[in-house]
């Protein structure tokens, strides 16, 4: 969630280890993040930030090893909740806790933040949730709700810098079909084969496949044999409703962000392919051609 305005983050490596405890603050904002690997919880649990009311994320590999799993929680304070998860939840390998400078968050605030983060993750469908319950938003005053929306926007601006993209839905980027435009826009690209066609464009988050794009139902045997992770990712899209059956093909129900044009093309066509050459604009120029021409300017 970006408002397009530049901002600064201060990252303090508290123990001198870049992979250890980090305190992240956004200039002129109250949101403060505490980032650390699971193994350090016994050492960092005495940090004053973890004695405060806040919201937290637990991240780690999925049981099948393909991609991440996410848990969103809140604590008043955070520390007891993290200690409980340390003993009872096996999947997570790192944690990110968010508190407000000066301890300004209360229980209702963090319940609101937890509910909003879960709703955003469920809408984006980029990372599966380990949460068993999906809480509703608590009742807040108009002023408190406005303050928490600002706090949330600051959190969402910080998280991609920390490598967390679970809450990002596909960005709304202006596209062009090839006609020159006055302002910079992303060219609309097409991927077709085996009776299906998809459209999409490159964005800062990755490669966006547009809603209404179609994908094949069946995949080639070599993809199943040599790239089982791709089969898992495809099934995830079906399970989450991003892909649904539509006649003799599958259809994207929403704009969806892939990490690369190649991954998008593979899941659309059901076979291994190079997205840089498979995605083309309305004039037939490949994504590689367009990028090389742009780089040569």
Summarize the structure.
The chain is of the alpha+beta class and 297 residues long. It has 9 helices and 15 strands.
Feature tags:
single chain; 297 residues; 2 domains; 9 helices
Secondary-structure topology with pairs:
Layout: E1 9-13, E2 22-26, E3 31-37, H1 41-44, E4 54-61, E5 68-75, H2 78-88, E6 94-100, H3 107-124, H4 142-158, E7 175-176, E8 186-187, E9 189-193, E10 196-203, E11 206-209, E12 214-215, H5 221-226, H6 228-240, E13 243-246, E14 249-252, E15 256-258, H7 261-269, H8 275-278, H9 287-295
Parallel strand pairs: 7-8
Antiparallel strand pairs: 1-2, 2-3, 3-6, 4-5, 4-6, 9-10, 10-11, 11-15, 12-14, 13-14
Polypeptide structure, described:
With 297 residues, the protein is α+β, with helices and mostly antiparallel strands. The chain folds into two domains: 9-162, no CATH class; 175-295, no CATH class. Helix content is 31%, strand content 25%. It has a six-stranded antiparallel sheet. The radius of gyration is 21 Å and the shape is elongated. Mean pLDDT is 91; it is low at 179-184.
Number of domains: 2
What percentage of amino acids are in beta strands?
A: 15-25%
The total count of strands amounts to 15
Order of helices and strands: EEEHEEHEHHEEEEEEHHEEEHHH
Could you list the spans in which at least 5 consecutive residues all have pLDDT below 50? 179-184
Quaternary status? single chain
Structural class by SSE content: alpha+beta
The outline comes out as elongated
Strand order of the largest sheet: 1-2-3-6-4-5
Q: Rg, please?
A: 21 Å
Cα distance spanning the termini: 31 Å
Main beta-sheet strand count, sense and barrel state? 6 strands, antiparallel
Helix content: 25-40%
